Amino acid sequence: MAASLALCSALPxxxxxxxxxxxxxxxxxxxxxGDIVATLRAQFRVSAGDALMxxxxxxxxxxxxxxxxxxxxxxxxxxxGFNSRAVSSLGARGLMQVLPAAHPGAFTDIRQLDDPAxxxxxxxxxxxxxLDASGxxxxxxxxxxxxxxxxxxxxxALHMQRFSVIxxxxxxxxxxxxxxxxx
Length: 183
What we know:
Elements: H1 2-9, H2 33-44, H3 48-64, H4 69-80, H5 116-133, H6 138-145, H7 152-168
Helix pairs in contact: 2-3, 3-5, 4-7, 5-6
């Protein structure tokens, strides 16, 4: 499992060179924002506007933090089920369930975490920091992101597999993709 997670999340997407061959099951890919939108609408019943904002933000932050958009989508699926208004019993907020008490320096006002794009940016930065601190060990980074939740990395991996299967049908070769779907 760790190898498949590492393959999907630890590659430097923002600096990857364009490939001319179609992706295989073993190659990472960047899904098109339109495919993300369709998947979120069909699988999670996310409104069209919210799905578009999530897709654009995921592509932007995946590029910014050099990680797989599939990893980010999978963390959101596990953390909030794509409910941007989700608040946990511990006070974690938004799509990526950022815990204000654990990351007080990541924002100036707690209400910033209620903005989906800001929440994904902050959550992505936190996850990237954990990936870097763990030397790229995705399981360790996810364990830390979840606060030590048992089975968390496995749940994220399961969502990654599902997203990969669904999104791979219209996959693009590994390359930087703009948040608006154009290259």
